[in-house]
Every structure is written in structure tokens, then in C-alpha cells.
């Protein structure tokens, strides 16, 4: 059996330096994992909050659309301005589409995992819906204003 070679001071120092680097990398990795866990929890909380807000929005939209449809206001617009009947019917038909879309978004948010929430797909879908709803509301306001100023207001 041969005698073990003596470890030189240089080798000893190199091993200590490598151990220090390994510990530093290990600590850095641990911090990254902790940050990931915190971010994941934040995304889960975001998804839960978004789901609750979207459910509230869906309820509010359903009540708003039902009130618009029950009030007879749009029927009055059609009677006062028959030329706008097609546009009025188109806007009324959008109510069901918009309600279904916001309900789908609320369900997606309820089911969202941290991974899907972070993908950006949910945020993109919500932004597209928001744009569509705002466009719808603007079109309704424009219709009402046009009928009032041209057909109803001019008869006062």
C-alpha cells in the first residue's frame, strides 16, 4: 500500500474556495426557490382575487343588461328611430355574448394555477374582453345619443 500523498497548502486553499463557491451557489439557489414560492403564492392570490372580481362584474353586468332589456328603452328607441332598429338589435344581442364571456373568464380565474396565471394568456383574454365591453357600452351610448338628438330631441 502506498502512502497517501500529502495535500499541498495550495490544494487545500483551492478546495476551501470551491466549497465556499458551492455554499454560495446553494444559498443563491435557496433564495431563488423561496422567491419562486412567494411569487407562486402571489399569483394564486391574484387568480383568487381576479375570480372574485370577475364574478362580481358578471353579476353586475347581468343585472345591468336585464334592466336595459326590461326597461323598454331600446324598444322606445326603435319606435322613435326605426332606421336604428338593426343597430339596436345588434347591441341587444351582444348582451348574451358579453355575459357568457365574462362568466368564462371568471371560471378561468377560479381554475387558474400559478403557471397558467403567469403565462399571460389570462391577462390577455381579460384585456380583450374589457376592450369589447367598453366598445359595446360606447356603441350603446352613441346610439342613444344619436336617436335622442336626431329623432326624439328634435320633436320637443
Explain what this protein looks like in three dimensions:
It is rod-shaped, with a radius of gyration of 31 Å. The longest helix is centred in the first third of the chain and has 63 residues, at 9-71. It is mainly alpha-helical and 156 residues long. The protein is built from 5 helices and no strands. It has one domain. Helices cover 87% and strands 0% of the residues.
State the secondary-structure class: mainly alpha
What is the mean predicted local confidence, pLDDT?
Answer: 85
Approximately how much helix is present in the residues? over 70%
Task: Give a quick account of the main beta sheet: strands, pairing sense, barrel closure.
Answer: none
Key features of this structure:
156 residues, mainly alpha, rod-shaped
Write a compact overview of the structure shown.
The protein is an all-alpha fold. The chain contains 5 helices and no strands.
Sequence-ordered SSE layout with sheet pairings:
Layout: H1 9-71, H2 73-80, H3 85-111, H4 114-118, H5 121-152
Amino acid at each position: 500500500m502506498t502512502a497517501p500523498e500529502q495535500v499541498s497548502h495550495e490544494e487545500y486553499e483551492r478546495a476551501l474556495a470551491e466549497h465556499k463557491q458551492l455554499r454560495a451557489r446553494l444559498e443563491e439557489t435557496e433564495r431563488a426557490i423561496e422567491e419562486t414560492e412567494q411569487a407562486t403564492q402571489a399569483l394564486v392570490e391574484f387568480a383568487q382575487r381576479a375570480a372574485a372580481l370577475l364574478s362580481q362584474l358578471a353579476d353586475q353586468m347581468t343585472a345591468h343588461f336585464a334592466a336595459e332589456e326590461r326597461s323598454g328603452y331600446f324598444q322606445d328607441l326603435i319606435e322613435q328611430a326605426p332606421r336604428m332598429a338593426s343597430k339596436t338589435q345588434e347591441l341587444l344581442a351582444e348582451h348574451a355574448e358579453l355575459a357568457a364571456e365574462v362568466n368564462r373568464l371568471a371560471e378561468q380565474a377560479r381554475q387558474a394555477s400559478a403557471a397558467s396565471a403567469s403565462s399571460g394568456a389570462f391577462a390577455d383574454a381579460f384585456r380583450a374582453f374589457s376592450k369589447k365591453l367598453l366598445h359595446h357600452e360606447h356603441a350603446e351610448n352613441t346610439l342613444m345619443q344619436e336617436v335622442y338628438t336626431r329623432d326624439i330631441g328634435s320633436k320637443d
